[in-house]
Design brief:
The chain is mainly alpha-helical. It folds into two domains: about 280 residues, Fido-like domain (Fic-like fold); about 60 residues, Winged helix-like DNA-binding domain superfamily/Winged helix DNA-binding domain (Arc Repressor Mutant, subunit A), CATH 1.10.10. Helices cover about 60% and strands about 5% of the residues. The chain is elongated and about 85 Å long.
Length: about 375
Amino acid sequence: MNSEVMTHKSGKFTFSGTYNQTELNPLWIETTILYQTVRDLPILPALASNLQEELIKKSIFSTAAIEGNPLSEEVVSELVNKKASGKERAEREIYNLKHAYEYLKRLKPAESKLSMSERLITDLHLSITADIDYPDNKPGMYRSHRVQVGDKTHGGTYTPPKIKEDIIMLMSKFVEWMNSEGILALDPFYRASLAHYHLALIHPFGDGNGRTARLLEALILQSAGIKYVPVMLSNFYYQNMDDYYLAFSTTQRNKEKDLSNFLKFSLTGAIDSLREIKSRITFHIRIMALRDYIHFQRSQKRLTRRQYDLVEMLIDNPSSRFTLKDLREKSPYSILYREVTPLTARRDLKRLLLDKLISNENGSYKLNLQALEDQ
């Protein structure tokens, strides 16, 4: 699956599909099993949509922050909700990414493997860098100047192909290689990582290369029908930014053109993302199941109205904790308990503890999310 190209000014360039399958197999198997589990978890369409919107906002923040955008996650979230962009560069970067991710969101799984094209890649870059005055960058156009990427703290610097003629040739070969039978036959997680790595290695644009590479990776996963992970990987890369740069630099320096380090890092990111999304979906399923359970218990007269309302309050705020004193003095609990005696409040808590709907730790009570398993 390797393809070697001799450039005019930058020596031999290798498109490599070499990796240690034995080393990566455990990660790939875990990724596959986790994804199948997440895919099969039941989730209401409205909840899935809200979750996707939240993940996109976090991903826009993360992929911009990796490249030095100074805006906080809260500010980014506010900007994503606006219809127009601000005049400042940082705000325009967020606005552009918002439109790029909207395209990603609309993309339906392809009936066949996504066909790579230079137009697809340059359009991604155009959408990311449009109307932003980056030095020596023309949106959607290959660079014609020499650049250096990386730094000593992250494994050293790297000089990508130096002249435009080499970039034009390499981008043509890159697309040809990505559309080859051997690469298209790979699992989408491998294929997406290979695209990410090699586009970053060519570094064809004056600016926005990292964002374009990460979006291309997401595009390949999204077109393969992979849920959630396409917009979550950037969060993992941001949270592990030093390791992200190190994975790239150590892979780039590998004399055998073995991409195991970068693929291992990407698969680890997919696993981390899938574990998080599994936890979040499972949490919502637990909450819905608990609501249904206490409604049944109330219909069978096994809970008083006040006990039922207290558990409902806790389900609405599942991380909240309270004491016996809080029931009578702290809102919203006092709405239920300010007119009753401490003895009645204790009796209610005793009943809910017995039913395992709440738990007690040193006089601090909270909702028991494992209530149904503990029955």
